[in-house]
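Schema walk-through. Below, the input block comes first and the output block second. Nothing else is stored per chain. Lengths vary across the set, and this one has 230 residues.
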Amino acid sequence: MDDLEYSTLEERNNSEGDNNKETKLWMIIYTDMVTNLMIFFLMLYCLTWLDDKDRLIAASSFAETFGGRKNEILETEKGLEKKRQQEMDEQANIERSAKQLFSNVQVNEERIKIVLPSPVLFDSGKSNLKPEAISALREISGLIRDTQNRVVVEGHTDSIPVSGGTFDSNWELSSARSFSVIQYLIDKERIDPRRLSALGYGEFRPVLDNSTPEGRAGNRRIEINIIKLK
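--- output ---
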């Protein structure tokens, strides 16, 4: 082998060695990056299991570790906590006022339910609001006007089939009644229609026994569900 061939072979070997080194270096950098990302997302996932106090402490620690600005994160967390507290106070005020204004108010983790007997709002077999219904709906408007809560109006009937009139079934009657309620809230009280829903269940969700006059009277109802903010 002459000097020229030897030199060319040596250069080729050196070039391949450099390429191998670059490939190994790139793989090391990529592996480190993937590992760090995995750790980062794992820490974010762990944060979801903490309560607000521990989450605030963890966020401050992350800010110091990763060179962030601790004060800004603290201020953001304080702002969110203040907003959550305001929403909780608002829900408590709605619940308290509803119980003062109406005799049948049911509360759980998801909603504040105001139950109005259908005869208070409608004549038998009709879906047009009675004049006496306006005062009750105005009170409800006052509860929800300045809030962001969604409101679901549900219509219910007893099990006696409708006869004659405009509607062919209790389902249609209950749906028309719930729609009349939200139509009033939109047209007269200027409640945002995007917050309102109307549902009709007919006789299919009774709360009392339909075999007695008292039970049937209790099943003829309109339920105003004020959905709590999450």
